[in-house]
Design brief:
360 residues; alpha/beta; Nucleotidyltransferase, domain 5; 2 domains; 6-stranded mixed beta sheet; 15 helices; 12 strands; 21% strand; Ppx/GppA phosphatase
């Protein structure tokens, strides 16, 4: 797999001393071992509540080229909202996926790593034991990041998609167990100003937790409205404080929800990242596509190649989160990002090493 990513956002790097420990678990040098500019292989792993994702890349000019990747839905957070702990079945699914990631990292001889875990490992009572078992069975030492770091990495990964002619964006990242919202703006008094984080929030609701509570397979207009209302209660305080003066701004969404929505909107026979990443949707497009999904049965959603059985019981929960955000921030356009935390981690590490030509 080869995929070039260019960077034009100008956001500054963030310290991450945990990278050394993460890399040490695989017997490889970590953050303390800088690489010559343009050299080396970097790996970024994101173990989320729903997905396990890996991106391996090499710096090229002012961006990077992806040389390998992996993504699998593992539902690590399945049942945590009711039991408080990660189940044995979920642990086994995670370890199977992480073992593949380890093999890819070693095969590509990646020397600079960041291996993170998010909401499921923040919330579960047995998270520490899970991390120890992952290290023992795969050699991977996970770094459990806080919500602010998660929001910052999402911004770093997605900010190149902010409209260059606009003032900024309301970025959202709908995860399995949490959702992050960030207001990003450029300084209007500064020419060619880089976008900066003005405010952020994280709510403890994602597609897995919402679908488990309200039901994800047989969603009625009534249960859908209840999901929207539940999310709206969490979003309202942030919107009240930071939802004013939205001129020349747009929504910027990164998640399986928005990429799936875009794929269905475009009537793709199968999901194609090249056609999704960066695509614009207006309010009418979004509303029509959500209405279309609400009109489908669970089986019809499962049979759609852009949704599949893996997301068929989660996609409407994600749409409910999106609708709550749209209601709170009534912007006319949404830009879809098939990028996020992994890209943010890669950019951060490469910048720290001076490996990007435009970022030294």
């Amino acid at each position: 797999m080869n995929d070039d990513t260019r960077l034009h956002d100008g956001l500054g790097p963030r310290e991450s001393p945990q990278e050394s420990a993460a890399a040490a678990g695989l017997g490889l040098p970590g953050a303390g071992h800088s690489l010559a500019a343009g050299a080396g292989v970097y790996a970024a792993l994101d173990l989320g509540t729903n997905n396990c994702r890996l991106l391996i890349a090499c710096p090229v000019g002012d961006g990077f080229r992806v040389v390998d990747s992996f993504s699998r839905i593992i539902r690590l957070g399945e049942g945590i909202s009711s039991t408080g702990s990660i189940s044995e079945a979920a642990i086994e699914r995670a370890i199977a996926a992480l073992s593949i990631c380890r093999d890819k990292i070693q095969a590509r001889k990646a020397k600079r790593l960041r291996l993170i875990a998010t909401e499921a490992c923040r919330a579960a009572s047995n998270a520490e034991g899970f991390q120890d078992r992952v290290t023992a069975e795969t050699g991977i030492r996970l770094e459990v990041i806080d919500r602010e770091t998660e929001a910052s990495l999402a911004v770093l990964g997605c900010s190149p998609l902010i409209d260059q002619s606009g003032r900024g964006a309301i970025l959202f990242d709908i995860g399995g167990g949490s959702t992050e919202l960030v207001r990003i703006e450029r300084d209007p008094n500064e020419q060619d100003a880089a976008p900066r984080i003005k405010a952020w929030m994280s709510i403890p609701l994602g597609v897995v937790t919402l679908a488990e509570h309200f039901g994800g397979k047989d969603v009625t207009p009534q249960s859908y409205a209840q999901m929207v209302q539940e999310v709206a209660k969490h979003v309202a305080p942030f919107a009240a404080e930071h939802g004013g003066d939205l001129g020349d701004m747009h929504l910027l969404g990164t998640s399986g929800t928005v990429t799936t929505l875009a794929g269905v909107h475009l009537n793709l026979a199968r999901y194609d990242r090249r056609r999704i990443d960066g695509v614009w949707m207006n309010n009418a497009d979004i509303s029509a596509t959500i209405a279309r999904l609400l009109g489908m049965t669970y089986q019809e959603r499962a049979d759609n190649n852009c949704i599949s059985i893996e997301r068929a019981d989660l996609v409407l929960a994600g749409c409910a989160i999106l609708d709550a955000i749209r209601n709170a921030f009534p912007l006319p356009r949404l830009r879809v990002a098939d990028r996020g935390l992994r890209e943010g981690m890669l950019v951060e590490m490469m910048r720290e090493d001076g490996a990007l030509s435009g970022c030294r």
